[in-house]
């Protein structure tokens, strides 16, 4: 006679309370689920759908992210971390534009959420971190002669903002065309003179 308990199925395991040990895993699952949900359904997708997709309870969702903006900030925090890692060695503004194109294409809902809350401290913190990365890349590109010395920090910020915003509001089938046109415009505007 066996005394072992039956193993719970995947659905039972994913929603069982594993306590504080699961906090990081739950947070990652919520962010991944949010990317999927908002990519599929846009910024008005039900907030509780994120918890369901992540396989956690609503309490866990609200404990990590009390509102949509907190969740959007977490997604962008990850995006910026990825950009910072990718730009550590050999990063250029041109490479950054490519990454922004990739991220903007799947982060449309989050771009909308953050742009509507620009005065929120979380949005300002993300913006400041991103601006610091842009400024470093601009200075490195100018020192290497890849972009003109006429290019100022605000020029790069506006270019990236325009690119991300335009892609966020462009129908999926037109995004490649818009991204290509933006690449050409920025290459001309930033070229050394």
Automatic annotation (TrEMBL):
The cross-references to SUPFAM superfamilies, in alphabetical order and at most eight, read: Homeodomain-like
List keywords of the entry alphabetically.
DNA-binding, Transcription, Transcription regulation
Q: Sorted alphabetically, which InterPro entries does this protein's record hold?
A: Homeodomain-like_sf (IPR009057), HTH-type_TetR-like_transc_reg (IPR050109), HTH_TetR (IPR001647)
GO terms for MF: DNA-binding transcription factor activity; transcription cis-regulatory region binding
Does Lipid biosynthesis appear among the keywords? no
Q: Superkingdom of this entry's organism? A: Bacteria
Q: Which residues bind DNA?
A: 46-65
- Residues spanning the signal sequence: none
Protein name (Swiss-Prot/TrEMBL): TetR/AcrR family transcriptional regulator
**Source taxonomy:** Bacteria, Bacillati, Actinomycetota, Actinomycetes, Micrococcales
């Amino acid at each position: 006679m066996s005394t072992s308990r039956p193993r719970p199925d995947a659905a039972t395991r994913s929603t069982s309370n594993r306590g504080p040990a699961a906090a990081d895993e739950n947070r990652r699952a919520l962010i991944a689920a949010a990317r999927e949900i908002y990519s599929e359904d846009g910024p008005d997708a039900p907030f509780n759908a994120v918890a369901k997709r992540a396989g956690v309870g609503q309490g866990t969702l609200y404990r990590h992210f009390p509102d949509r903006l907190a969740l959007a900030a977490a997604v962008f925090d990850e995006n910026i971390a990825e950009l910072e890692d990718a730009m550590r060695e050999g990063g250029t503004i041109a490479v950054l534009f490519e990454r922004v194109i990739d991220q903007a294409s799947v982060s449309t809902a989050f771009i909308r959420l953050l742009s509507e809350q620009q005065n929120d401290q979380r949005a300002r913190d993300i913006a400041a971190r991103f601006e610091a990365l842009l400024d470093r890349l601009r200075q490195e590109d100018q020192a290497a002669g890849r972009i003109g010395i006429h290019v100022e920090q605000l020029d790069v910020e506006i270019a990236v903002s325009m690119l991300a915003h335009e892609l966020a509001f462009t129908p999926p089938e037109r995004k490649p065309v818009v991204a290509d046109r933006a690449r050409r415009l920025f290459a001309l505007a930033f070229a050394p003179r």
